Amino acid sequence: MAKGITTRSEDYSQWYNDLILKGGLADYSAVRGCMVIKPYGFALWENMQSELDRMFKETGHQNAYFPLFVPKSFLEKEEGHAEGFAKECAVVTHYRLKADPNKKGRLMVDPESKLEEELIIRPTSEAIIWNSYKDWIKSYRDLPLLINQWANVVRWEMRTRLFLRTTEFLWQEGHTAHATAEEAIEETKKMIEVYATFAEEFMALPVIRGVKTESERFAGALDTYCIEALMQDGKALQAGTSHFLGQNFAKAFDVKFLSKANQQEYVWATSWGVSTRLIGALVMAHSDDEGMVLPPKIAPIQVIIIPIYKGDESKAIINTKANEIIAELKKVGIRAKLDENDNNRPGWKFAEYELKGVPIRLAMGLRDIEKNEVEMARRDTKEKITISLDEITNNIQSLLEEIQSNLFNRAKTYRDEHITNVDTWDDFIKVLNEKGGFVAAHWDGTAATENAIKEKTKATIRCIPLDNKLEDGNCILTGNPSKQRVLFANAY
Predict the structure, then answer these.
(1) Which is it for strands 223-230 and 236-246: parallel, antiparallel or unpaired?
(2) Do residues 191 and 175 make contact, with C-beta atoms less than 8 angstroms apart?
(3) Which of 111, 282, 350, 486 is 20 to 30 Å from the Cα of 213, by its Cα?
C-alpha cells in the first residue's frame, strides 16, 4: 500500500479522495462546493477534451461560446426545464459593491445596483443558446445547426465530492437544431455512440448504452439516452447523456424555419454533454490500493524515466541517453518524461509515479546503458521486464496498446460479472446489499413503482438498455406484467 492511501476494502470513499488529493488531480477550494483542478488533473482533462473535440468535429460540429449569465425570464420559457433546475440555480441580483460606511475596510452590496431582472449563472445553456438560434435560423438552408460549447456551469450542491459532484464543473454541451424529428433523433443516438466510443476506446471504460425512464430524463427532454458505467464498489455512474428535446425549446423561443415546402415550421432539437466527472469515473474504475491506474491513451505521462546514478558524471551519461530515448518516443507521439529531480531518491519516485498511475516506468542506470538494456515496469500488473535499448520504441508502443486493452478487458469482466438477473423482491434486495452492480429485473413501467423501489432501496433505474431483449415477466415489486428487464443499481 502506498504511504497514506486508505485501502478500498477499508473505506472506498476515503480511498477515492486520497487518490484525487495525493495523486495531484485536484484540491479543495476556499469556495464551498468548488474544487481546484491541479495541473496534473487538468492535463488529464485536456487529453480527454482533445479527443472528444476531434470526434465532435469529425461528425460535423463546430465550437462556439455563449454567455455565462442567463436572464431568469429565458429559463422560465420552457416550463419543464425551469422546474427541473430551479433549486440548483445561483442567482445574481446586483452588479456592484461599495465600501461599508459602518465597517472600515469591509464591502457591502450597493442597494442601488439591483438588477431589473435577475441573472442565473448557467446550470446548462439551452435557454441562452436557443434565444440566439431564433436569429440564426430562418430557412431549411440554415439546418442542421451543429454547435458545441466547452464551458463551466454552476449547479448548487449541498453534498459535494471532488470531480463527481461539485457546485461548479467543466463540461461540454452540444446543442443542435434540425428540420425533422427523424434527423434530431438520429443526432441524439449518434452522439451517445460517440460518447460510448470515447469511453471504451480511450478511457478503457466499458459502458451500457441505454435510454432513461421518464422520471430520470433531462428536464425538458422527450427522451434521454445515456451511457452507464460500473465502479469497483458496485455502484453505477452515469458517464454521458444525449437528449432528444423535440420542439419544446423551439416553441418556447419561437424558433421557426421556412421548409422546402414553403411552410413555417418549428425546428427539432438535441443537447448532449459530458463533464469532468469522467475523471472521477476513470479513477474509480481502474485504480488500486497503490494509486491511480491511467489508460495510456489519455494519461498525461505515458512513460516516465527514472535515472539511477552515483555522482554527476554517471548522471550526465544517463540523462543524455534518457533524453535520446524520449526524443525517439516523441517522434511516434508517445508522451515521455525524464525525472531529473535531485531532491528525491529513486524509491520515492517509483512510489510517486505509481500513485500517479503512469502506465510505463523505465529505471535506467549506468550498468544498464553498458549492457544496452533497461528495466521496464508496467503499472497495471506491476510486472517488470528487461528490454534491449535497440527495440525500446517498438516495445513501448506494443506495451502501451497491451495495457490499454488489459484495462478495458479487466473492467469489462468485472462489469459483466456484476450484471445479475433477479425475479423476486427478496433476491433483488439480497443482490443490491451483498453483491452490488447492475440488477436486471422486471418493472411494470409506472413511475409510482419506480419511485417506491427507490424509496425502499435507494436504487434507481439506470437505463433500459438499447439492446434489451423483450421477455414476458412480472414486476419484482408489484407482480404486474412486464415486457422487459431494466437495469437497477445504486449510483453516484
Answers:
(1) antiparallel
(2) no
(3) 282
List b or e across 245-266, with b for residues whose CB sees 16 or more CB atoms inside 10 angstroms: bbbbbbebbebbbeeeeeeeeb
Tell me how far apart the alpha carbons of residues 70 and 107 are, in angstroms, rounded to a whole number.
Answer: 26
d(CA 48, CA 451): 35
Residue written as grid cell 487538468:
42
DSSP, collapsed to helix, strand or coil, labels residue 90 as strand
Q: How many CA atoms lie within 13 A of 440 on its CB side?
A: 18
Question: What's the pLDDT at 230?
Answer: 98
Element (H, E) at 44: helix 39-58
**Domains within the chain, CATH numbers bracketed:** 12-286 (3.30.930.10), 303-399 (3.40.50.800), 419-489 (3.30.110.30)
Q: How far lies 173's CA from each of 117, 180, 241, 250, 300, in Å?
A: 26, 21, 10, 18, 24
Give the C-alpha separation, 209 to 465, whole Å: 6
Residue with cell 488531480: 25
Question: What per-residue confidence (pLDDT) applies to 192?
Answer: 98
Q: HSE (CB half, 13 Å, CA atoms) of 359?
A: 25
| Cell matching residue 188 | 441524439
CA atoms of 395 and 387, how far apart (whole Å): 8
> How far from 23 is each of 37, 169, 223, CA to CA, in Å?
12, 19, 38
d(CA 325, CA 320) in angstroms, rounded, equals 9
Give residue 366's pLDDT: 95
H helix and E strand count, the chain: 14, 26
> What's the confidence (pLDDT) of residue 1?
41
% of the chain beyond a pLDDT of 70: 99
* 110, 96 contact by CB (below 8 A): yes
Q: Enumerate the H helices of 356-391 as residue ranges.
A: 366-370
Cα dihedral value 181, 195, 465, 469, nearest 10: 90
What pLDDT, on the 0 to 100 scale, is given for residue 378?
98
Buried b / exposed e along 209-238 (16+ C-beta atoms within 10 A): bbbbbeebbbbbbbbbbbbbbbbbebbbbb
What does the block give as the cell for 135?
436569429
Question: 18 by DSSP, 3-state: which?
Answer: helix
| Global pTM exceeds 0.90 | yes
Count of beta carbons in the 10 Å neighbourhood of residue 389: 18
Q: Omega of the bond prior to 144 within 30 degrees of 0, cis?
A: yes
The stretches in the chain having pLDDT less than 50 are: 1-2
Name the β-bridge partners of 139: 258
pLDDT at 100 (0 to 100): 96
Residue 80 has φ and ψ, to the nearest 5°, of -65, -40
Contact 448, 488 (CB under 8 A): no
